[in-house]
Amino acid sequence: MKVHEYIINKVSNNKKLHFTLIDPDKPLDRLEEISSKMVEAGTDAFLIGGSLAVTPEEASQAAKILKEHGLPVIVFPGNINCLTPEADAVLFMILMNSLDPYYLMGAQLAGAPIIKKYGLETLPTGYVVVYGSTTVAHVGRIIPIPDNKPEIIGAYGLLAEMLGLKYFYIEGGSGAEKPVPPTFPAMIKRHAPNLIVIQGGGIRSAEEAIRIAKAGADIIVTGTIVEKSLEKAKKIIEAIKNQYTSP
Ligand code: 1GP
Fold this sequence. Notes:
Elements: H1 3-12, E1 17-22, H2 31-41, E2 45-48, H3 56-67, E3 73-75, E4 89-95, H4 101-118, E5 121-129, H5 135-140, H6 150-162, E6 167-171, H7 183-191, E7 196-200, H8 206-215, E8 219-222, H9 224-228, H10 230-243
Parallel strand pairs: 1-2, 1-8, 2-3, 3-4, 4-5, 5-6, 6-7, 7-8
Helix pairs in contact: 2-10, 6-7, 8-10
The structure holds SN-glycerol-1-phosphate.
């Protein structure tokens, strides 16, 4: 089954999904153990990527290990160096609030022929980085969005839908002090109800994850908490899987 179909099937059955983010730049020696625990808890897919220092070899190595679980492995590219033929799909993203043409169309131009050669499925995604003091914000040269201006994200959502994109990723930034408020995914759903909304960055508790899911995010991504506390990460996944009841 294609990855998009796999996601759509779950979303259209009113399920909320959890994706585990793995940064291949971090030591991979515990990856088997960590990923097995996340699978046990019920994660739906793995994202691999990082904003800095990922080599194609590291991305391939991580993808090979993760594929053993039989769940989709999706490249979440900080740049074209994260691409690997070992993955199943790639979030093919436009960093919509970047000032840098490279992140608006340059990386995509460089990446498209490689993605074709690798045979990766593309998941067309509008990507907006909300907070300024994160690595992804610095590298991507973004204009941050204040917490009290959810209407701005709503306009980006509308734009993404009008462009024909299928996914919209609200990014707080890996290791952000707090998650982006639930008003943001709610605003996307209001303006662009057909987009599959992904949210990540700074999500560290089951309560936060549930609030964001209830507000409209279809997919919750956690990375840092997986590295810091497998127990907390498991609780987040279990909460999304078991406690969430769709409205
Ligand atoms: C980064 O949204 C993800 O793109 C995950 O963020 O590391 O804060 O969980 P965290």
